[in-house]
Amino acid sequence: MRVHRDSGDPAPTEREVASDAARLPTLETTIADQVRALRRATGLSVAEMAAKAGLSKAMLSKIENAQTSCSLTTLAKLAATLDVPATALLRGADTGREAVFTEAAKGSVIVGRGTRVGHHYELLGALRGQHKRLEPVLVTLTNKSEPFPLFQHPGTELLYMLEGVMVYGHADSEYTMRPGDTLLLDGEGLHGPRDLVRLPIRFLAVTAYPDSHE
Question: Which of 11-20, 32-41, 204-213 ranks highest by mean pLDDT?
Fold first, then answer.
């Protein structure tokens, strides 16, 4: 039976954002970010880009630092110099960022194969579009019944134990899970509870499906 160990790698820090940066981007900041990124991708300096676009170096610097608003004429010049459509410089400006709040015990109930033997599945929220690939479910097991349902699906699943004790199987491995324990697994491997040691059992199951999943 395989034993999985923590690699000890620290958590990624790239996701952290300074408190003064936690704001919605303005049109100026969106254009600034796009122009700067595209200019750097082409290998042009600020002076070279300004000369090709027919702008002063000072003006381009102000645009890249979101210190001035861009006229449509200037936007067209920048896009032509970077060989991209003008809309590429506005990408992200009008993108709404969705969030779903679910009150306690107000999630949608999912009827699954284990429902008939005392398994309760509560969907805690779902986003639309490309973000729909993440599925958080609160699972409650109340009846000790066999056989237990097995699951197999594309993507990755994370289990976080909240209450009770169970033995959870994944492929040819078994894990005794207690409150606070976490199991991260490949969804393609057959997985599911194998022994309900102490009821009631509650755990959070978060499945991240691949981009191509429907």
Answer: 32-41
Q: Please, are residues 81 and 50 in contact by the beta-carbon 8 Å criterion?
A: no
Picking from 62, 90, 118, the residue at the C-terminal end of a domain is 90
Q: What is the pLDDT of residue 5?
A: 46
Q: Of 35, 61, 90, which residue is a domain's last?
A: 90
* Local structure of residue 147 (DSSP, 8 states): S
Domain of residue 201, residue span:
108-208
pTM: 0.56
Largest CA distance in the chain: 75
In a domain, 213, yes or no: no
Q: Going by C-beta distance under 8 Å and a sequence separation of 6 or more, which residues neighbour residue 57? A: 46, 47, 50
179 preceded by cis ω (within 30°)? Answer: no
β-strand partners of 167: 176, 195
Summarize pLDDT for 110-156 with one digit per residue, the tens.
Answer: 665 545 557 788 888 877 766 678 899 999 998 876 667 889 999 99
In the three-class reduction of DSSP (H, G, I as helix; E, B as strand; rest coil), residue 197 is classed as strand
Q: Is residue 103 part of a domain?
A: no
